[in-house]
Amino acid sequence: MTMTESPPSEAAESSAAPLPAVGGLYDWLTTSDHKAIGRIWLRFGALSLLFFSVIDVLISFERLDADAIDVFGGVNSYFQMWSLYRFGIVLMVAIPLFVGLATVITPMQVGSTNIAFPRAALAAAWGYVLGTLITVISVLSGGGWGALDGVSGDEADAIRLTLLGTGMVMVSIILGTICVATTVVSLRTSGMGLTKVPLFAWSMLVAGSVWVLTLPVAIANIAILSIDLSGGAGLFVGAPNPDFDVYAQLAWILDQPAVYAAAVPVLGVAGSIIPVVAKGRQVSHEAMMILIGLAGLLAIGGWSQPFFGDERDTLVYIAFGVAALVPVLASLGGNGATLVAGEAPVGIPPAHMIGALGSMLLFLAATAAGALRVIDPLDLIGTTADTGVLNLVAVAAILGALGGWWFWAPKTDGRLFSGIQGLGAMTLLLLGGVLLGATDVIAGFVDTPDVLLASADDSLGDAMIVLSMVGSIVVLLGVLGALGAIALAYVKPGEADDDPWGGHTLEWATATPPPAGNFAEPPARVRSEAPLLDETPGDEGGES
Amino acid sequence: MTATTTQLAAPAIRRPRTVLVGTMFASGAALMTYFGVLAVYVSERAGARDAGEEWFPEGVIELGPSGWIFWTLVLAAFTVQWAVQAIRNDDRPNAYIALALTGMFGAAVFNQLWFIINDTGFALAGTRGQFLFFVMTGTYIVFLIGAVVFLALTTMRALFGQFGPSQDDGVAAAAMFWHAVSVMYWVTWIAIFVTK
Fold this sequence. Notes:
Chain A contains 18 helices and no strands. Chain A is an all-alpha fold. Chain A has one domain: Cytochrome C Oxidase, Chain A (Up-down Bundle). Chain A is globular, with a radius of gyration of 23 Å. Chain B has a single domain, classed as Cytochrome c oxidase, subunit III, four-helix bundle (Four Helix Bundle (Hemerythrin (Met), subunit A)), CATH 1.20.120.80. Chain B is elongated.
């Protein structure tokens, strides 16, 4: 809270200070600079992305012939890794990447010198790292979210540890998100009303609010399950041994509508990148804000959990499933109109453009698949269509986060990432995401069960499972390409201008890399949602 | 520069209400956590009733002690707002009295809850109803302790002079979280003790 306690004059003085070196472990553990804190989320999120992508390939390989192939050594181990991938890719990769990006970018976008509650933000970042490590280690030690054929006493201890790790990750996400959301609400610069907030910052406020209201319900579930495992009589987890119930009672956060919340920031990333690529203003900034808000509203889950009975048969669930398609489709249309109205250069698109548009297309595919999934006669719930929707959302979020990271790399890492390598990686991720998601949705139409413990007894289902594995491998290649390009940017750092893309929002008014305090001088009074366009001589946009 | 202008008070620096906004989000998260547990409780109870099972034996949960907690928290809601108003008026003696009274009410609520838990004679490894009753009261006690600690920190910072008429965010934030914890109990009182 140092920032809030500093009068404006002190804040202005500190903003001229040089960029603090964050090198040793002590610096990483004590920094209060939001850019360094955001990099903890981003870098560990990137490592987690690689880990979970490898896990997905191994799971896909075992699914090829569940009767003959035993990669993990038993049905329990398979289930543990299957559930680890699902929780991990959403809670330990997709959401943290956005929290990290927002921790770095959002304060600059709103013209603030730092994030609100920087020490809490730092605690959240390390809590996420620790929680993820505890979760992964406990699963590898025989824990996880229950087991399919009973577990020993030691494994029950490991399950409690998994629940602790999952809870820690959730609390960290909530804490980090509160810091970001408070920054957007309270630390906006002069003249920046809520309707003039950049779309990425707005999407993080919306998605963050949904996470803050949804994840605590899952924490309540975890508390009940943990106490039941520790001192209760196994009332909710199948006495004497925990079983599939543990996963079943938490899986609602990986199911629609709650899982859509992980991808809501995709709309903000695209809404920030597309106008810059189009070299013009967003056609209707306010309309895009409403659509993002609507997407967030339709992603509120919690009420659809099995503790409350099977809510997935109700009209509300069906309405949420179908309606979720509307804001995503309309948002894609809005961005398309912006591209058409602008002066986008003809030729090879930049990597961040592919990331932005690709992630929106995947999110659209996810909501379309979700809309089909809730139609009762199709009978898709409980089939691989569940995994299909999850994978489409997860890859959409990852592609959107990576697209945003490429775009904002001069501000997050002080350098540009390779455009060509980025283009290849984003394209692979897009193709892999489509293969991974669409094949599982199609396999769902022939009743291929979600937790596949035996080979599918349908030739179409078999074919889709093979294609799904190809999708997993393509996604892994895309991840390797992206992380390789980021690593290469550190080995051979290229020069980056302060504003290499001709950005519209205040983060592009800072130096590259941004100094401590972000701005050499307090930003001028903001007059529109694209303040840098207002300052450009000859701009015809005017105020919106 | 005339004497008149040098004697003019500088305009009060109005800090952004970051602490208040952050606490608003945190209170929302706390409420959702608690109501998540409560919703499971209510849902399981409805399931037990539909199945014709007894949730709690007749007469085990008494309305009296839980009602005292209700009214204690009503009083505390007034005293915590008294503290906020006193800080805004730079009336420090009143602020200290109000914060101390609120903290004392918090301790009283804890004491009364402990009495209820012991009075019921429930076991954690008992029936679903007993188990969930323990989880509910335990979760509530965690949030109550959090609110009291928040209040204690606020009181200390007020004692050291960090909060004043233009900087009442900390006290207002502690009051907001206190109200959220009170709302948790009031809803619980109706859902568990009144409707049983």
